[in-house]
């Protein structure tokens, strides 16, 4: 049983999934091994993820490993309906349709959980949250899970601190390969791609205000500057703010940046980063975009209360007309602009993130029963293996240590 928009879109979805697969050589190698070894045989896996062509290749890898898989979308606007249809045709239960309301969004998560999973794969912690609050009857059968977003990891740590988390969850988001590729290079490119598709603006010459200078913010700042923007960074962390400053970016509080920014992008994992006091001083035509996981970083309700009219000016751009005549443009309803107005990260980026996910699921298949409830890191060997496979797919070779070098590094007796 599934809930998708149109099964007739499957053929088009297969073509697009295959296209993405061409840029995902690491996951393809893992899928080939999984098909032979069946490391996930007998396991049921429920996922809450963006239903895109890249995610499809991960889900097909888990299925190739012998798992029974069900997926719900982790964002009401990010589902690619043809991809969903292709997955259903390939035997994966999919509960996702583009543009659903919030009631349907949560119903889909419940339907994916009806699989009674052994393992869960989450983006944003909504599935794990519902497991603990509304579907606790299933917890006894869940041995472990993976989380792929910064927002989700933050929520998991909060659950763990309160003693609420009942099974081990691996923070796949925190691996070096995921941070490097997905957060930095992926978010940097795909967010600007979404903004340009939604608005067709010229980035060069604009003042782009980036809220948050973690890996995502760094990637965004690099790409925006590369396109000719003047970049302003807002931060609450003094170390990250200093890093931004030393990289040549202007660092200001949002209250100051709000008055002169042209484009505002939030990537913090927190709520109400752009609030009413900021909206009231923004210039006419300012563009608001969010690339954090949930639609809480921009206070959309405050924007609605300030507006006297709202106009849909482009497919993913709503113009809020304020009482004084100023117009503020909100993209993708404040949701993830890179997935709602574009196609998310390039497949070559997601290749590494989803390779991390696949190998972590394989590891959890045997390791989960030995792990205590809480947030765990991906074993370093998995991170290194993903990087090694990626380099191999790009025909890159590395130096190796000589015996003398190994002896030198392992001894404290050798001095200068």
Automatic annotation (TrEMBL):
EC number(s) reported in the record: 3.13.2.1
Protein's UniProt keywords contain NAD: yes
Residues forming coiled coils: none
Cofactor(s) demanded: NAD(+)
Keywords: Cytoplasm, Hydrolase, NAD, One-carbon metabolism
Subcellular location: Cytoplasm
Pfam families to which the protein is assigned, alphabetical: AdoHcyase, AdoHcyase_NAD
Catalysis: reaction(s): S-adenosyl-L-homocysteine + H2O = L-homocysteine + adenosine
InterPro entries xrefs: Adenosylhomocyst_ase-like_sf, Adenosylhomocysteinase-like, Ado_hCys_hydrolase_NAD-bd, NAD(P)-bd_dom_sf, S-Ado-L-homoCys_hydrolase_CS
Binding site for substrate: 52, 123, 178, 182
Ranges for domain S-adenosyl-L-homocysteine hydrolase NAD binding: 183-344
Residues that coordinate or bind NAD(+): 149-151, 183, 212-217, 235, 270, 291-293, 338
Taxonomic superkingdom: Bacteria
Pathway linked to the protein: Amino-acid biosynthesis; L-homocysteine biosynthesis; L-homocysteine from S-adenosyl-L-homocysteine: step 1/1
Cofactor note: Binds 1 NAD(+) per subunit.
UniProt cross-references to SUPFAM superfamilies, sorted A to Z: Formate/glycerate dehydrogenase catalytic domain-like, NAD(P)-binding Rossmann-fold domains
Matches recorded under HAMAP family: AdoHcyase
Function description: May play a key role in the regulation of the intracellular concentration of adenosylhomocysteine.
Family: Belongs to the adenosylhomocysteinase family.
Protein name per its UniProtKB record: Adenosylhomocysteinase
Organism: Actinocorallia longicatena
Gene name for this UniProt entry: ahcY_1
